[in-house]
Each structure stands twice: as structure tokens, then as C-alpha cells.
What does this fold into?
Amino acid sequence: MQVELPKGQQRIWEALVKYRGRSGLLPYPLELARMLGLDRKGVLQQLEALERKGLLEIQARGRGLPAVLRLTPQGRLKAGLGIPLLGTVQAGPLGAPNQEVRGIINLPARSGLYGLEIDGLSLAPWLRPKDISIIKAEPLSYAGQVSVVRVHDETTFKKVYPKGRKLRLESVNPDFAPFVVPADEVEVQGVYCSHFGGELTRELLEVFM
It folds into this structure.
């Protein structure tokens, strides 16, 4: 997740991410200040700035108890602790997807992975509407690979078959007719890796408000 931070906030952020990577937790503000050799008040101001940017929550626990820091879903994405959900993609007729980051999938992050919500029936019964598909942003590896393709500024989910200078785009669902387009008019935006739905969607997915 791209949130630009000034130098001071970046130093604090990197220390938080490094600490969490070692322990699975975040330090208390005073502990963080001691680690960095900085004034507690200054560190708290930087933490509050990170909170205003939606990356962090500072949870007060009452008089005499140190505040607890918690990464928000946006913060976990920036820290590389989840897979971004980019929106929906048509699994039938062409349609424009929502490419803004809509949420986080709480699975281990890997470079180039992103999630898309299925909208349409051309992948039925394999995938259903509201299922979440995990996509790897990489080129086509073999003929017939299920991919996210962009054609004439619209995006869809299709199996892709190279045919000379053209591509045959085919749905998994035989009720949808395939079509052929010039290869130079198609952009493969990623290839299918996995998917989940049903109860797992509620357990793994956090959608931003």
C-alpha cells in the first residue's frame, strides 16, 4: 500500500515493522523511544501522525498503563502482512474493474499477489460470484491458463489461447461463447493462483470502509 511518509515517520514505521517481524507484536511507545534513543514525546507525536494516516491505532488503557499500538488493515498492507483486494472483475462479459485497494486478505503476502472478487458466471461452477481469486501479476505461462485480461480498456477473467497474432479468450462455463481478438489489443494483467469463498471469505477478508 502506497502511503508516503516523511523521514521522521518513516524511521518510526520501519522500527515498528522490524520489531513486529521479530516478535509478532508492536512495542509500547516508551519502549520504542528507548530503542531509537529518541524523546518519548517526539515519538508519540510521530505515532499520532501515523494514526491519522490510517496505518496505526493507539489504544489507551487507563491511568498508569502504557498505550498499546496496533496496525490497521491498511498498515498491515503497507508492512507486507497481507494480500491487497483490488476490487471486482467480470467473469463473463467484459467490464471495468474497481482497481482501488478495497481491503486486505489475511494470508501471507508475496510479491505480485493481489485479490479480486468474482462478478459473473463464466467461471461457474469452478468459481462463483463473491468468491475471492488470488492473482499473480505475471505473464501467461501456458495455453489455456486462466488469466485476468484487459481488452479495449475493459477487464475480464478468461482462459487464454495464443493463435498466431491473435488470442482466443474462453470462459470455463460452456454457456459463454469464446471470442478471438488481436494479441496487441490484449494485456494479461495476471494469472490465476487460487481462490476461496463461503465461510473462509468472512474469516480471511477485511474490506475497508
About this structure: The longest strand covers residues 186-196. The CA atoms of residues 105 and 202 lie 10 Å apart. Residues 7-23 form the longest helix (17 residues).
